[in-house]
Specification:
about 325 residues; three-stranded antiparallel beta sheet; two-stranded antiparallel sheet; 9 strands; about 10% strand
Length: about 325
């Protein structure tokens, strides 16, 4: 997608306000997240194949021979955790393995299991995510972003031409509009988005931020101004839309996961929203990001958290009741027919 004159005229005072580099520690992963990740491994929610590549339990299926699947997001996440340990000489994963060999295994899996189309490369999820309206095979801008971030860091460590070519193909997919088979979604207002669950018309906040940051990574890697423009447009999308993620019921205040479903999130996601906005602020120095981060962080206290819990419980009960009433109504109609 060529840079348009409208994009060139777009003004947004972000960028180049920190010393962040695309091959630095993966900033969006915190040490506490590695601890949570380890707990998933210990519980058997995540297992590993003979090459050390993770598989996750398929949603809705109990543990068994067919219950584990490869997930591009999970593979990229694991690789990024390993990368942080590698460059910091730490062992947060504590798996007793050669971290460089394991890191290369994640990269190799992504390179081998991608799908190429024209000058783009991407990954499919071959399991259902029915709660988000996705039937296999489906695609995710979150997977693209995480994979791109891992591949760029692999380029820095390994100087492997094939890995760098794959990274470039993934980057092309991030600048190509969804209408042309890419991942850049432009809404009716001209706002730029990346959708975690492609095709369901949703706007998951954390998935959007994880994906847009990778566009910034690629700009730093390539010095291609087109990616800078896209990142700036995404920052402006946040400027215009963050207020829509505020959730208020009575005195309870929280945030939502997705503009489509408008469900109040779990505590872990609330903290993630705050962390992501603070991290974005470090590279953009955009005050509105810090303002929202501080506001949403202020919600994480009592008695507000108790009010949120009660409101969520009541909401769940009402939705369950409506579902039952809807089923009864459909049954009555069927009996009449």
């Amino acid at each position: 997608m060529a840079t348009t004159s409208a994009q060139k005229r777009f003004k947004c005072q972000t960028m180049s306000l920190s010393n962040y580099r695309y091959f630095d520690k993966y900033l969006l992963f915190k040490d506490s997240m590695a601890h949570d990740y380890l707990s998933f491994i210990k519980k058997g929610i995540i297992v590993f194949d003979n090459d050390g590549v993770p598989l996750g339990q398929r949603p809705g299926i109990s543990k068994g021979s067919l219950s584990y699947v490869y997930n591009p997001v999970g593979v990229a996440n694991h690789g990024l955790f390993l990368y942080n340990d590698l460059i910091q000489n730490t062992d947060h994963l504590a798996l007793g393995i050669d971290k460089k060999v394991a890191f290369d295994s994640q990269v190799g899996w992504l390179v081998r299991n991608r799908t190429d189309r024209n000058d783009m490369g991407y990954w499919f999820h071959n399991y259902p995510a029915l709660e988000h309206g996705c039937k296999p095979p489906w695609r995710s801008a979150l997977a693209q972003g995480l994979a791109l971030s891992l591949l760029l860091r692999a380029c820095h460590l390994n100087s492997d031409e094939e890995i760098c070519r794959v990274a470039e193909r993934v980057a092309v997919s991030m600048k190509t509009p969804t209408c042309d088979g890419g991942f850049l979604y432009v809404d009716e207002k001209g706002d730029y988005w990346y959708q975690e669950y492609m095709g369901n018309c949703g706007y998951v906040l954390n998935g959007f931020i994880f994906a847009m940051w990778r566009v910034y990574d690629y700009y730093l890697y390539s010095n291609d101004e087109e990616y800078k423009v896209i990142f700036d447009r995404c920052v402006n999308t946040l400027r215009k839309n963050l207020g829509r993620y505020d959730w208020k019921v009575g005195l309870a205040k929280w945030t939502i996961y997705d503009l489509k479903d408008k469900n109040p999130i779990e505590l872990g996601y609330q903290k993630l929203h705050v962390s992501l906005l603070k991290d974005l602020y470090t590279i953009t120095r955009e005050g509105f990001l810090l303002d929202y981060a501080n506001r949403w962080e202020s919600y994480i206290k009592q008695p507000n958290m108790l009010l949120v819990s009660l409101a969520r419980h009541i909401r769940a009960q009402v939705l369950a009741l409506l579902k039952v009433l809807g089923a009864d109504e459909r049954s009555k109609v069927s009996e009449k027919e």
